[in-house]
């Protein structure tokens, strides 16, 4: 696959172990659909697909979000500095927002597996501001609420509904969100409200298997379900 060099311009600390890396499009801008990923080459031994977490409307920069986990994630998180260059291939992937309709969107993900949801939302905010989006974000720890300040800003003034669920049996001090996991009742209520709702889920294999079971139990049509397994 042909790759091009891109320069890192900014790093944002999202959570204690998750960072967003903002790259300059430079001389090789590329088009992408919200939800797609790019293959990032850190060096000959370290390369991995990373979902683009920014909107296609950003003309100068694009963003990926990386958790300090695994071989690639740890190396990328620790080594990348502003001014560094990496080689990146063309956008790929089938977890793409259907941009030719105004059907409501429901996105489900756990911890750091929601970069595509951010890309979805920012696209819709510009192009389809009347389109409704619901985000079910499961977290294994309160510190893992990703893009929290950004989404809080928009929840009051846009058609975004965010449901944060802490996957723990008991409520820790200071936690005011929900407990447990996404249920068939939750997703079924969205479907009954509007049968055209499209359901997207991204995550590691155990999460994706669970989400598929939830959606199946909620009797969501297969044609309305889009998933991407991260491993």
Automatic annotation (TrEMBL):
It holds the Pfam family FAD_binding_6. Keywords: 2Fe-2S, FAD, Flavoprotein, Iron, Iron-sulfur, Metal-binding, Oxidoreductase. CDD domains: FNR_like (cd00322). Residues 1-98 form the FAD-binding FR-type domain. This is Flavodoxin reductases (Ferredoxin-NADPH reductases) family 1. SUPFAM superfamilies: Ferredoxin reductase-like, C-terminal NADP-linked domain, Riboflavin synthase domain-like. InterPro entries: Cbr1-like_FAD-bd_dom, FAD-bd_FR_type, FNR_nucleotide-bd, MRET, OxRdtase_FAD/NAD-bd, Riboflavin_synthase-like_b-brl. Its cofactor is FAD. GO terms for molecular function: 2 iron, 2 sulfur cluster binding; flavin adenine dinucleotide binding; metal ion binding; oxidoreductase activity.
């Amino acid at each position: 696959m042909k790759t091009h060099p891109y320069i890192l311009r900014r790093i944002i600390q999202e959570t204690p172990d998750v960072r967003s890396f903002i790259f300059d499009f430079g001389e090789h801008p590329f088009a992408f659909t919200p939800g797609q990923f790019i293959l990032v080459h850190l060096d000959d031994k370290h390369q991995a697909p990373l979902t683009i977490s920014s909107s296609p409307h950003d003309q100068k920069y694009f963003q990926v979000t990386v958790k300090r986990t695994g071989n690639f994630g740890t190396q990328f998180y620790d080594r990348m500095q502003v001014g560094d260059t990496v080689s990146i291939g063309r956008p790929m992937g089938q977890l793409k927002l259907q941009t030719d309709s105004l059907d409501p969107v429901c996105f489900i993900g756990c911890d750091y597996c929601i970069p595509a949801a951010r890309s979805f939302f920012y696209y819709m905010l510009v192009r389809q501001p009347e389109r409704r989006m619901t985000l079910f974000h499961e977290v294994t720890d309160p510190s893992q609420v990703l893009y929290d300040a950004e989404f809080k800003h928009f929840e009051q003034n846009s058609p975004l509904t965010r449901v944060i669920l802490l996957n723990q049996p008991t409520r820790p001090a200071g936690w005011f969100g929900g407990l447990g996991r996404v249920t068939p009742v939750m997703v079924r209520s969205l479907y009954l409200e509007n049968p055209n709702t499209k359901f997207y889920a991204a995550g590691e294999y155990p999460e994706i298997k669970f989400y598929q079971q939830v959606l199946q139990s909620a009797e969501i049509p297969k044609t309305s379900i889009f998933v991407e397994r991260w491993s």
